[in-house]
From TrEMBL:
Naturally occurring in which organism (per UniProt): Crocuta crocuta (Spotted hyena)
UniProt GO BP: cell division; kinetochore assembly; mitotic sister chromatid segregation
Entry keyword Cell cycle: yes
Protein name per its UniProtKB record: Protein MIS12 homolog
PANTHER family referenced in this protein's UniProt entry, alphabetically: PROTEIN MIS12 HOMOLOG
Length: 206
């Protein structure tokens, strides 16, 4: 198979000429295999009616495969020539032919210098686009971080509200008094825990 890109032909056909030829090659090959299978079946049926025939199906299969290899070699050789003719004379767009979407080149020809400037402008636009994409991704990442911070702030505020509610239940009038009460109770609990630990150590020693 030819490896020449033939991109202009692919633009016109919607597929590469090489792909077309490959499909034709596979179709011909499948037909050849089917024909050889049919021939083998016919030979086997004919031999069944021959009395005293010593030719086994295995021998028939070996002969069929050998003949198939010969036919495939001949087919590959002929197909190579056919592919060359098709790619050169049938599936190739002549150099002087322009596709409808490229007709503007006839009325608005572009010099080499103008083409280079356009290429440079395209590259600059592509670079700006990549920069914008990176900036957008950075902003999205920052927004995600802000969402996490906001969630933590909401959790903290909810905790403060809960502490404030506990303080009011204990008779404190505002959050500061609630916090002071919480600290006082924490110290009492810590003192009780220390007393329990000391008593536990004393009992173990005694």
């Amino acid at each position: 198979m030819s490896v020449e890109p033939m991109s202009y032909e692919a633009q016109f056909f919607g597929f590469t000429p090489q792909t077309c030829m490959l499909r034709v090659y596979i179709a011909f090959q499948d037909c050849l295999f089917e024909v050889m299978q049919a021939v083998e079946q016919v030979i086997l049926k004919k031999l069944e009616g021959v009395p005293g025939c010593e030719v086994s199906p295995v021998q028939i299969r070996k002969c069929t495969e050998k003949f198939l290899g010969f036919m495939k070699g001949r087919f590959d050789s002929l197909f190579g020539k056919m592919e060359q003719l098709f790619l050169q004379l049938v599936l190739r767009i002549p150099p002087h032919i322009l596709l409808p979407e490229d007709k503007a080149q006839e009325t608005h020809p572009c010099s080499e210098e103008e083409f280079q400037l356009l290429q440079k402008e395209i590259e600059e636009l592509q670079e700006k686009y990549r920069t914008e994409v990176c900036a957008q991704q950075a902003l999205l990442a920052e927004l995600e971080e802000q969402k996490i911070v906001q969630d933590k702030l909401r959790q903290t505020l909810a905790l403060f509200d809960e502490l404030d509610g506990v303080g009011r239940d204990q008779g404190a009038s505002d959050f500061r008094e609630s916090l002071a009460l919480l600290v006082q109770n924490s110290r009492k609990l810590q003192s009780i825990r220390d007393d329990v630990e000391r008593e536990g150590k004393r009992l173990k020693v005694s």
